[in-house]
Every structure is written in structure tokens, then in C-alpha cells.
Amino acid sequence: MEHREYDLVVFGATSFVGKILCRYLVDQYGTGADLKWAIAGRSEAKLGALKRELGEAALPMIVADADDIAGLNAMCLQTRVVISTVGPYALFGETLVQACVQTGTDYCDLTGEVQWIRQMIVRYEDQARSSGARIVHCCGFDSIPSDLGVWFLQNEATKDFGEPCNQVSMRVKAARGGLSGGTVASLINVTKEAASNPQLRKELANPFSLAPAGHKSSKRQPNVKGAQYDPDFGVWLAPFMMAPINVRIVHRSNALQGTPYGQEFLYDEAMMTGKGLKGRLAALGITAGLGGFIAGAAIKPTRWILERFVVPKPGEGPSPESQKSGFYDLRFIGQTADGRTLRTKVTGDRDPGYGSTAKMLGEAGVCLARDVRNTDRAGGFWTPASIFGETLVERLKTNAGLTFDRID
Ligand SMILES: NC(=O)c1ccc[n+]([C@@H]2O[C@H](COP(=O)([O-])OP(=O)(O)OC[C@H]3O[C@@H](n4cnc5c(N)ncnc54)[C@H](OP(=O)(O)O)[C@@H]3O)[C@@H](O)[C@H]2O)c1
User: Fold this and answer.
1) pLDDT tens digits, residue range 169-209?
2) 6-140+355-398: CATH homologous superfamily?
3) Where's the Saccharopine dehydrogenase NADP binding domain (predicted)?
4) Cα 408 to Cα 262: distance, rounded to the nearest angstrom
């Protein structure tokens, strides 16, 4: 790659999650020191205010609009990696992906919008391969802990058993933290699109919709759709809101790595709600609440009420205190074809959606800029596990408050 001034540019630095990310980068890497980075966004005034908030008057800034291809190309040509938090990505994200693949610039983001990721792969993968741009979606709570959590479990299984587990389940044991306006806007947008698009509903029902053509399994994938008892953990389960994106990323990772988890690999995710009647009632309640949200977001009048009165607005999210007191604890159980089992866990030390997500996204960007050589991973659409693997696990453990452990 020709010389570029910055290692990283944070596009959408003034978003709720972008501000947390910038604070993290200042604290972890400084400004203008070893890591050269800049902030970017559509509003010069807001970027200026962010610099004052961060106490970093000399932090370089770039003004560009999400729809302005010339401005985005000029931004991309100044940096090796762009991190984007400008979402909903299905509404604002495509031009930047286009600019990155045109200029051979690496990119990572926080989207969890399956239908948009699929469109980007279909439209831009060939161009990314020829320009050398590495595009990595889903570098936040969806889907890094799931994707690297499975990668970690399979590595341990291969060490112990000489083979991977052909079935893995992830269970959210505990989590604390709120939703932000941006995440809710993305969820409402996909529900709205799906309500009027049967092809999209079909795609959203296919667990292999993000895997390369031809990668599928003949076995039916498990899927927790309602309250259900889990004999492995002895608890009740409810559907997990992020499962649809995480499951598809894990299957894509398996395919991009050359199916090390096996062609017939089974994977599912759910939330633990506890034991006995209390656990069952909680599972029923969560299932009903999720169904109500989806039904409410699908039609115009209730969607308006949700957006206007119920959910946080864009730019809003959990307070610094609830980010700090937030955490998550994910449990994984894997089973080999002959019944041997392995349990692992992944934890994070901030609220999943923002405090921890911002640190994961920052480390993914730094990992792209510093650790992953173009000769090892060429241009194309990658997943966190398939492009980063061990290097990101180590970064997250050392810098970002995550743990990856076996439970023996
Ligand atoms: N995967 C995960 O775990 C995870 C977690 C958190 C968030 N997310 C996703 O990350 C995204 C950001 O979330 P958030 O809550 O931080 O959102 P937010 O606060 O609503 O911020 C949205 C950002 O987009 C910018 N923007 C909007 N239109 C633009 C345009 N035309 N040109 C340039 N910038 C534009 C806004 O700029 P201004 O500041 O100038 O208004 C703002 O910075 C959402 O899509 C959300 O779903 C994912």
C-alpha cells in the first residue's frame, strides 16, 4: 500500500458509541504517538466539540458526509483503516464500503444487519478482492464474543480431543447494560424492511445466508424460538435477540477458514433465565416481550409509538455509570461426534452494547492496522474469527477487559 497518513480514522466519531471509542483510543494509544489516528464525521462543529470533550485539541479531524463518495474516497486515501459507527448501516453505510473497496482501504464496523451485510458481499466482494480492501463487519458485541468464543472453544477441543466439536451452544448466563438509540433504530429498520419483503424474510430465516455459496449443512440447525428447558445447563432458555446475526457470522467464519468446525457443524444461541417455575415464567415473559417488540416495529402506527415514546433516540444510550457497572458472561458447551464435551466462557467488563463494544471495535481496528498482514489475509469480506483469531483474542484479554477461559 502507498503511504497513508493515518493508521486509523474513526468515521462517526460523534455517535454515542463513537465518543466512547475515541475516549478509549485516547486512553489506550494516545494521540499522534505510536498510533496515528483521526476523527471524522459530517459535522465540523460536533467534531470540534468532541475534541474539546476529549481534551485533545491537536487530534486531526476530517469532515465527510456518508453519501458523498468523493469526500469519502479522499478520507480513505489518508488512512490504512476506517472504523465506522455511522448507522443504521442499511440506511447510511453503503457509500463508505464502496469508497473503501475502491481505494483498497481496510474497514470494520458495528453492523448486525444481516440483509445489508449480504448485499455488501454480493455487490463488492470481487472489487475488494482486487483492490486488497479487507472488510470486517460485526466487530461489536455482535458478533465478536460469539465468533471468537466458538473459535476459542474449537481450538481447545482440537488440543484435547484431536478434533473439533460438531455441535456448540452459546448461552447468555448474565448480562447488564442498556440499549442505545442507534441499535434500536437498526432493529426497527430491519423489522420494517422484512414486514414488506418476503424474499428478505426468507433470507433472514436461513442460518447460512452469509456463508459463501455452496456452504450448507444437510442437518437442521437448532434454534431456540420460545421458552425451552436446557438439560445441559439445567435451566430454562429464552430466545436471544442477537442470535440471528451471531449464528450467521459463526457459520461464515467456519466456511472462510476451510470448515475446521466440520461441514455439518451445528450452532445455536439462547439466554438462560434460571431454574424451576421462576425460570420458566421469565423465559415465557422474554419470548412474549420480544415477539411484541417485533410485531410493534413491523407496522406503522405502533412503530411510531415505539420510536416516539418507548425506545431511546439516536445519540442516546446508557449512562457512564451503567456502562461501568455493566458486564456479560457467556457460556459455551461443545460436543464431539462421539459425545465428549467441553465448556468454556467469555466475559466482558462493561455493558455489552456500548462500553465493551467500543473497546472491541477499537481493538479490531488496531488489529487490522497493525497485526494482520495483507500477505496472510487478502482483500475480501472477512469475519472477526477468520481474519483475527488468536491476535484479537490476546488484544481483547490484555487491553479490553474480556476473558476467554475453559471451565474444567
Ligand atoms: N454490534 C453492536 O454490538 C453494536 C453496539 C452498539 C451500536 N451498534 C450500531 O452502531 C451504530 C451506531 O450506534 P449509536 O447508538 O452510537 O448511533 P448514534 O448515536 O445514533 O449515531 C449515529 C451516527 O451516524 C452519524 N450520521 C448519520 N447520518 C450521517 C451522514 N449522512 N453522514 C455522516 N454521518 C452521519 C451521526 O452523525 P452526527 O453525530 O453528526 O449526528 C452519528 O455520529 C448503529 O448502527 C448501531 O446499531 C452496534
Assistant:
1) 999 999 888 655 556 666 677 777 777 888 877 777 899 99
2) NAD(P)-binding Rossmann-like Domain (3.40.50.720)
3) 9-136
4) 24
